[in-house]
Design a protein that fits this description.
With about 325 residues, chain A is of the alpha/beta class. The first copy, chain A, folds into 2 domains: about 190 residues, inorganic pyrophosphatase (n-terminal core), CATH 3.90.1640; about 120 residues, Diaminopimelate Epimerase, Chain A, domain 1. Chain A has 10 helices and 12 strands. In chain A, strand 8, helix 8 and strand 9 form a beta-alpha-beta unit. In chain A, helix 2 runs antiparallel to helix 4. The radius of gyration of chain A is 21 Å and the shape is globular. The interface between A and B is large, with 61 and 61 residues.
Chain lengths: ~325, ~325
Amino acid sequence: MSAAAVAAALRERQSFVLTSHARPDGDALGSQMALAFALRALGKQVRLIDRDPMPAPYRHLPGVSGIEYAPAVSGPADAVVTLECSDVKRAGLAGLENYFLINIDHHLGNEMYGHVNWFDAGAAACAEMVADVVDALGVPWTKEIATHLYLGIATDTGGFRHGPVSPRTFEICRRVAETGVDTSRPSRQIFDSFGIGRVKLTGRMLSNMELRHDSRLAVLEFDDALLAECGATVDDTEGLVNLPLGANEVTAVALFKSQADGTCRVSLRSKPGVDVRAVATRWGGGGHTNAAGCTIAAPLDTVKRNILPALEAAIDAATPQLAVNN
Amino acid sequence: MSAAAVAAALRERQSFVLTSHARPDGDALGSQMALAFALRALGKQVRLIDRDPMPAPYRHLPGVSGIEYAPAVSGPADAVVTLECSDVKRAGLAGLENYFLINIDHHLGNEMYGHVNWFDAGAAACAEMVADVVDALGVPWTKEIATHLYLGIATDTGGFRHGPVSPRTFEICRRVAETGVDTSRPSRQIFDSFGIGRVKLTGRMLSNMELRHDSRLAVLEFDDALLAECGATVDDTEGLVNLPLGANEVTAVALFKSQADGTCRVSLRSKPGVDVRAVATRWGGGGHTNAAGCTIAAPLDTVKRNILPALEAAIDAATPQLAVNN
């Protein structure tokens, strides 16, 4: 399957619903919106339906205000296009089984659940694949399309640091910049667009960081009281769990949030070789090998007493990752 | 002046000293090293002389171990190439007046102090200009050259967020990736490769952050005692000045370091519209409009009493930046 085959399936249909995964990120949004602008340029009817609202920094981007938020897809559509969904449940939407499904995704383990499936684990972002689809549809890149392609790539690669960033990735970015989009501006809006409360919270959480197991495990925590003190919201904690992972010593990070309902939310991150997904699944959670989480109905102390030794064991059991050439 | 003219001046000479500014950053290093590899590929003799050691995360990169650290340039050389130096004093090296000088730089206000000068404020990094020189010299891009060009661009743009990032910037990155360099790996080494002391220091500095002028001005400071307490080095402070600038409220940041010799080092950052270069130059420093610095021979309190009101005035005088159509 290829961009050309996806484009053919799109061309012969007239009305579409586009969707992406629940708790959407920049690539979920950018992929959907870029494809929506391209299909509309061809005179197609496009609805965007997502389960969860887009993160605040992206809401001002072109077209985003037109997204419908709903728990299910209904109404007529010749096809539903799922972007960034490795399995059909990832969208979190009821009713998808009633539609012709076109599945475009770059996540390893994609279940090929669609009637048309294009899966490319070599793409640094789903937006990279959408760029090829837009080209295969013969739609010129407008600033709106370019902005959303760049959003997907810049966020899914963490600013070109993660994933299979390739010549193709940068070639798309070159073409984005050629449209006259000031790429540094959306990047700043994406990465540098939060309240000062987040900066204060970052300071407080890192100051209180606990290091265990020869500094290989970093432990962060926050609660509503700390958020209030810093003038921050839960949105402001997004990504903070990754900060200690930049240190050479640290191979895993646990972030705990005591919640008002007596449960404790646990976010886990790790470097290649340390499997935190296995730890999260033991307590009913899930995720990826290096990014996982769970929610446990117990007080913080109890949760830490259980999770932290399990993480230390996961660190000890880590497979050494061979250095890649260069 | 152009890359071709610089290449002509380089081609007709045989022995070179390359240097960059004191307290080197990624672009200072990457620009020097990429040009060094290109000149050596042509059989030229190249020495690299810098006043200050390279930041730790870059020391493992190819060729860096061959740099000489010295307070002066001496010995025979047909020319000295200064990279990233807006005036000749920026290199911090004695003896430059005895040499034929080739000046390659992208800093606004370059004093054109060389015998050959190429200045391009439209380049996102000096390494962008060096890429053109390497091409004009007809030297194919090796992985070493590509790695250093990417280092310069990725660091000087703060991960493609700042400065005039253009189609040319991404085209160079595309060609870097074409050489087989895994750009995400050096990016991680550059940005996510520090000691845990940096994480602790980040926490402490942000916890102690002072907000002034309706949170439009953020003030950070550190000294040797805090570094020691955190197990951090001065290298670990690299880039921390940018963190508060991510907050919507903040339009300028000042970072102060009281030094053992009784002077105070001031780093300034700002959002578009606020000119911190003008503030730094009033106290004998320099830099870019949105990233500048100076060193003042006075105690911290005195320095703050002078600089902070000047910054508040610069914030008040800020030109509102019109939203760019996109």
